[in-house]
Structure formats: structure tokens, C-alpha cells
Structure to design on (740 residues):
């Protein structure tokens, strides 16, 4: 996270991690399509000829909170930069470089049975890279998305459910190609990350916004009109704090 | 805050990889000058000017003029001929230059002549990074305003009206279209060059990161290697110490058993003599083994001193022949030494050289069956460059001749794959051969190291149709030893 008091800007970095071809870039494309034009920048993809991610994809989302009339709340802008890493094993050093300075990670797992091993290997890789960067994965905002739920021969709902109950991380089911589960995972990660930053740095006070109102504010800014908490609550397992003032989920 | 909010790096290694990968992706440090090529921007502005006749200027948010396509308007030249006109024009232009396009990023800045400037913000990544100034142009159906006509007594209204009408005219929506077109084109250019910038930056960063990882790995390998070398040194030291300590009591055992054997303590009878002889013989064997170990450890630790003096190979090999003839005859193996005439002297340690050929010949006899033969042949051969004779190198450096000694047997032979390993200490081609032929497995490795200590090489070749040739090459001294008195035939 970067906080620039002079320009009243907060920049958060979220990273979509996971094995090769699990749908990280697809998630980002769907997120791009699901957000309003005013709030999103261009999706930057750095890919090879065969559409595989070479370095990363990056989607900037920028929201401006207007100052309140009574002057209690200052205007500020929040910039969320969503990155993907290249999944292929050979890009190990690039993955670590992209992961540098991340505030939260969405781990995009491939639901197909055949990919179980690749998921596990990628998770170990994530853990190792975070460790190398001095980050303990246990205290790091992390959500897991089981993508490709629409394909045949995938791990069953019951299996994912039992996995989710065993772990601490919130788990979301998704089919990024059709866009389902994409916002759920994004909002879940954003809230988890916000809660961590808020707890560590009292961010809400220093930038003058309501801690519990952060996620609904962002949701509104990117053009989501429904109840954002119901999306966050669609997770299986895990715990996502609504921070002081809000209902605890 | 931004620094403290980052997790602390765990090691110096990860600290080094903390070069900001997101310099260009996360930071707000993007500048228009960095992203755009001035010449290309000028081309773009020229094309707009060519299409619509509206002057275009582009400024960075730091105020630098990056492109300027305009021609002096007649009316501007005219008002500048009068003093108040110059002043008014100057303040208008500087106000237009620094005008803030505001929240909307788009303002119209009027000129006292009735013309106008349109100022637009250039945004990238939702941040303003520069401005486009379009104009001056004349909004349609503009009458010359009083601010122009009554500016200065020197202004002739008719002339001013005529010149003003020559200024390019544009409707507000035309200017809006031009502005949006220009902004869209610029945005595309900015995005493409940002992408190129990020790509090249990531290339460098990834290569650096890979390099760091490789460096880290080779550092670890080097550490492990150093540790192994140190362990090896300790082992050699240990071996040397132990061998030395073993030798001392053994000397007493051998000495006293010899005294018993020769009857100093009274005559021995029958089995007594036989037993004492066995003790003495085994003691000698053990001593030989210990001496070999000591030699090997000295050679490995580099503490073996090789005395250097002139050595005639014929006398060295002659001694080997006389030493081994009895055991060869016992095995019914024909042993022959064949030394070419007129070989120059070597410069080396005669004792050690004798040990080399004694070991090789003894080994050859050991593995040669009954009725076989062992030949030790010495001659002078043309030198070879590393990697073989030939090529331009052979022309550039003179290659001195060398002494070659071949120990040729008709024994069981050594498979090609084993030939390098037989010089390893304690290595034996077939462990069962130890039982059949005896030996410690140290002879060849000692021979190999002694040859190396003399600057020579040793290799193994086939002896067709059966057997092995050990080929030792030793260099002749570059200058013949000066003093003949130093010669010691037979070492």
C-alpha cells in the first residue's frame, strides 16, 4: 500500500496468483467488463504470441471519494491495482517481482481434478515467494477461488466445501469465463485487505472515511448496484471482518 | 507510510530484489516527457494543424513545452505593433499557457481580440500529466469586440476587423471534436509507450532477479565446495598423523621379530621359526601399507617434497628390473626393460620415479597370467599440445619432446569405463580381485600423483590383442641440468 498525503491518494496492490491456465487473466478481463468505465483504466496485458501472460496483466481501478458537505470527510482517491502473475513454472523470478509489495492475494485454483497437483504446487510456490519477501502467509489477506466450475470432471462441491471448512481462507466458487464469482472474489479480497490495512494503520481515520463503509463505497463507485455484503457472504469458510461499526459476518 | 506499510524484507537477498518493479506500474511517477517521443508528438500536432488550421501546443504538467505548431496570425502581428497591444497580448498568452483546465479538464480562455484558446487536460491513469492548448482561433460569427477596437489609439478599426477575419474560425463543437480526437490519439500513444516501458522494465527486473537467484545458488555451491575441501584436508592430515603413529610401534614389532628370527634370543625350532617369520613378513607388509598411506596423504595434502636432480631413466628402470625379476620369475612372467639409446636426463626425484615404475610394473606382473609378458619401454616422443597436435597453435608455440614410458602387459585388461577411476585411492576394478591378487588399491593412485608432481601425465591404453599399457609421459627439463656432478645414476 502506498499512501500519499499530498495528493490524498491511497494505492493498494492486489495480486491474482495461481497455476498456469487457471484463469487469472480471464478474471481480470471479467472484472474489467463488470466495472464502470469511469472507474477503470485500460487493462494492460503483457503477453506472448500464444496469449500466455509473459510478465503480468494489470487493471487499475480508481475511485474518488468526494469531501462531505460538513467538511468532516476529506476528498481522497483510492487506486486499486489488480495484477496477475504468469503461471508458467519458468517465470518464477517474474512472479516474485510482481508479488513484491502486494497487499492481498487471490489464489485462482483450477477446479479440474487433473489440476489438483498443479494447484498445490502453485500454492507452495506462493508461500515460498511470500516468505522470501518477508511475509507470513498466515497473516496475509488471501482468498481462494475455485475457478472453472462449469467444466466436467471437476472437484465436487462437497469436496471444496470440506476443504474450505478445514482452511482459514475464504473460498469462492467461480466461472470467470461467464463472469460468475468474479466480483464475489474481488470484493472478498478487497474487504479482507482493507480490514488488515485498517487494523494496522487506522487508514480510515487518516484518510477520513468510514471504515465500515469502505466496501459499499467502492462497490457503488465501480457501478455495482446490489448488496455487496451478500456477494462477500457467498464465500465458503473463512472469515471476512466488516470492520468496526459494521455487522460482523 | 508507504515504506512502513510494506512488509519488512527478511534477508539481504530479498532486499536486493526490492528494486521497484512497480515503478512504472504502481507509482504515480509517470511523466508526459517520459512517455512520449517529442518528434512524434510534433508530427501528430502538425497533422491536426494541417487538417483544421488551428494552432496546437502541448505542455507537460511541469510546464515544459513539448510541441508547438502555430503560425503568427496577422491580427496578432498587428496588435503587437502598438505598445498596449504588446502588453495585452503578452498577458493573454501567458495566462493561456498557465490556465488550469479545472475539474472538467476543458476550459475556454478568451483573448481581448475576440479570439479564444481552448485548454484541455491530458490525463493518464486518471491523473493529469499535461495540457493541450488549441488556438488562438475565432469562434464563429465573432464581431471585433471593443476590447480590440478601443485598445489603443493606434489601432485602425477597419484594418483590425479585416485582419481578425483572416484568423481560422471554428465552431465550439468542431473544437470539441478536434480536442477529443487529439486526446484519444495521445491516450493511445501514451498507453502503448507505457506498455513498452513496463515491458522493457520488467525484462530487466526479471533478468536481474534471475541473476540474483543464480548468484545465490553459486554462492551456496561455493560454500559447500569450500567446506568439502576443508574436510578433505582434515582427512589427509588425520591420515598422515595416524600413519606416523602406527609406524612407531610397528618398527619395534618388526625389529624384535627379526631378532628372534635370526636367533639372537636363542635358536628357534620348527613351528616357532615359521610363526616368527610370518609375524615378521606380515609386519613388513603392514609397514609397506602404512608407508603407502603416508605417501598418499602427503601427496594429497601437497606436503610431499619432490627433490629435483638429473635422473637417467635407464638406471631407474634397471633398478626396477632387478627388484622385480625374482617375483616375475616366480609367476613365470617374462619381464623386460627396453630403453632407447641416447635419452636425455630427466629432472626429478629418482626415489619417487623408481616408486612409480615399481608400482606400475608390479601391478602389471600381478595381473598378468602365467607365460605372459611385461615390457617396460622408454623412448622419446614428440610433444603434444593439450587437445592434440595440429591446428594453428602448433605453429605458434614450439612443442618440446617428452619421455614416454610404456608398461605393457598381457594381463586381464581394464575396461575403458574404469580407466580413469583406477587412479582413485582404494579403488579396485573388481573387489574380488583384491582376494585373488592382493594389494591395497593404493599403488596406482600414488603412481598417478607422483607423475603429476613431476609435471607428467599417465593414461591407460589397450594392448591389442590382450592386456593393458600404462603410458607415462614426463617432460624433459627445458635446459639440461648444468652440473654433471649432480647426476645420481640409480637415485
Amino acid at each position: 500500500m502506498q499512501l500519499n498525503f499530498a495528493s490524498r491518494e491511497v494505492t493498494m496492490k492486489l495480486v491474482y496468483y495461481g497455476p498456469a491456465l487457471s484463469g487469472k487473466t480471464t478474471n481480470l478481463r471479467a472484472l474489467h467488463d463488470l466495472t464502470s468505465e469511469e472507474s477503470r483504466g485500460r487493462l494492460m496485458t503483457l503477453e506472448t504470441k500464444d496469449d500466455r501472460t509473459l510478465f503480468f496483466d494489470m487493471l487499475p481501478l480508481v475511485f474518488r471519494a468526494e469531501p462531505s458537505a460538513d467538511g468532516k470527510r476529506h476528498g481522497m482517491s483510492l487506486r486499486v491495482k489488480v495484477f496477475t502473475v504468469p503461471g508458467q513454472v519458468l517465470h518464477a523470478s517474474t512472479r516474485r517481482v510482481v508479488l513484491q509489495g502486494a497487499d492481498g492475494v487471490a489464489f485462482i485454483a483450477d477446479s479440474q481434478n487433473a489440476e489438483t497437483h498443479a494447484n498445490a504446487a502453485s500454492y507452495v510456490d506462493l508461500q515460498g515467494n511470500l516468505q522470501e519477501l518477508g511475509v507470513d502467509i498466515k497473516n496475509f489477506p488471501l482468498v481462494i477461488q475455485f475457478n472453472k466450475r462449469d467444466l466436467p470432471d471437476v472437484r465436487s462441491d462437497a469436496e471444496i466445501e470440506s476443504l474450505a471448512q478445514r482452511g482459514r481462507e475464504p473460498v469462492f466458487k467461480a466461472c470467470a469465463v461467464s463472469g460468475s464469482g468474479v466480483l464475489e472474489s474481488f470484493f472478498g479480497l478487497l474487504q479482507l485487505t482493507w480490514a488488515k490495512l485498517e487494523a494496522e494503520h487506522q487508514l480510515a481515520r487518516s484518510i477520513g472515511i468510514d471504515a465500515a463503509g469502505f466496501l459499499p463505497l467502492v462497490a457503488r463507485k465501480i457501478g455495482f448496484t446490489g448488496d455487496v455484503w451478500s456477494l462477500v457472504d457467498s464465500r465458503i469458510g473463512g472469515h471476512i471482518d466488516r470492520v468496526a461499526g459494521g455487522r460482523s459476518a | 507510510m508507504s515504506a512502513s506499510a510494506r512488509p519488512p524484507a527478511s534477508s539481504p537477498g530479498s532486499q536486493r530484489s526490492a528494486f521497484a518493479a512497480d515503478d512504472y506500474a504502481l507509482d504515480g511517477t509517470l511523466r508526459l516527457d517520459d512517455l512520449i517521443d517529442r518528434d512524434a508528438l510534433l508530427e501528430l500536432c502538425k497533422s491536426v494543424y494541417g487538417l483544421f488550421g488551428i494552432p496546437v501546443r502541448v505542455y507537460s504538467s511541469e510546464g515544459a513545452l513539448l510541441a508547438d505548431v502555430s503560425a503568427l496570425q496577422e491580427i496578432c502581428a498587428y496588435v503587437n505593433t502598438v505598445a498596449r497591444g504588446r502588453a495585452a497580448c503578452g498577458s493573454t498568452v501567458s495566462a493561456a499557457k498557465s490556465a488550469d483546465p479545472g475539474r472538467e479538464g476543458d476550459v475556454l480562455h478568451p483573448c481581448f481580440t475576440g479570439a479564444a484558446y481552448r485548454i484541455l487536460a491530458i490525463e493518464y491513469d486518471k491523473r493529469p500529466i499535461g495540457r493541450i492548448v488549441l488556438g488562438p482561433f475565432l469562434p464563429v460569427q465573432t464581431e471585433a469586440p471593443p476590447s480590440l477596437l478601443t485598445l489603443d489609439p493606434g489601432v485602425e478599426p477597419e484594418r483590425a476587423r479585416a485582419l481578425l477575419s483572416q484568423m481560422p474560425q471554428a465552431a465550439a463543437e468542431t473544437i470539441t471534436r478536434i480536442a477529443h480526437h487529439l486526446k484519444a490519439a495521445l491516450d493511445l500513444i501514451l498507453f502503448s509507450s507505457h506498455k513498452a516501458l513496463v515491458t522493457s522494465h520488467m525484462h530487466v527486473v526479471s533478468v536481474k532477479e534471475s541473476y540474483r537467484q543464480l548468484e545465490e545458488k553459486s554462492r551456496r555451491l561455493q560454500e559447500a565446495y569450500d567446506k568439502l575441501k576443508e574436510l578433505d584436508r582434515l582427512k589427509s592430515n588425520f591420515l598422515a598423523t595416524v600413519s606416523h603413529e602406527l609406524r612407531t610401534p610397528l618398527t619395534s614389532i618388526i625389529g624384535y621379530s627379526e631378532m628372534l628370527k635370526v636367533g639372537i634370543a636363542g635358536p628357534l625350532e620348527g613351528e616357532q621359526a615359521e610363526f616368527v617369520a610370518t609375524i615378521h613378513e606380515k609386519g613388513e607388509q603392514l609397514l609397506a601399507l602404512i608407508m603407502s598411506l603416508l605417501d598418499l596423504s602427503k601427496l594429497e595434502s601437497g606436503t610431499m617434497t619432490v627433490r629435483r636432480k638429473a635422473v637417467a631413466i635407464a638406471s631407474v628402470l634397471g633398478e626396477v628390473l632387478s627388484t622385480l625379476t625374482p617375483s616375475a620369475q616366480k609367476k613365470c612372467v617374462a619381464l623386460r626393460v627396453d630403453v632407447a639409446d641416447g635419452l636425455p636426463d630427466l629432472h626429478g626425484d629418482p626415489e619417487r620415479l623408481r616408486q612409480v615404475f615399481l608400482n606400475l610394473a608390479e601391478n602389471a606382473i600381478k595381473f598378468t597370467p602365467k607365460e605372459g609378458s611385461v615390457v617396460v619401454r622408454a623412448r622419446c616422443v614428440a610433444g603434444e599440445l593439450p587437445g592434440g597436435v595440429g591446428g594453428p597453435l602448433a605453429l605458434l608455440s614450439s612443442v618440446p619432446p617428452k619421455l614416454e614410458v610404456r608398461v605393457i602387459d598381457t594381463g586381464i585388461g581394464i575396461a575403458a569405463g574404469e580407466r580413469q577411476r583406477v587412479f582413485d585411492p582404494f579403488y579396485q576394478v573388481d573387489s574380488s580381485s583384491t582376494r585373488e591378487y592382493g594389494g591395497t588399491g593404493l599403488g596406482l593412485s600414488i603412481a598417478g600423483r607422483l607423475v603429476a608432481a613431476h609435471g607428467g601425465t599417465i593414461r591407460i591404453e589397450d594392448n591389442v590383442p590382450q592386456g593393458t599399457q600404462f603410458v607415462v609421459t614426463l617432460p624433459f627439463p627445458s635446459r639440461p641440468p648444468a652440473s654433471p656432478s649432480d647426476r645420481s645414476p640409480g637415485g
Observations:
- The two ends of chain B are 82 Å apart (CA to CA).
- Chain B is about 50% helix and 15% strand.
- Chain B touches chain A through 33 residues (CB under 8 Å).
- The mean pLDDT of chain B is 81.
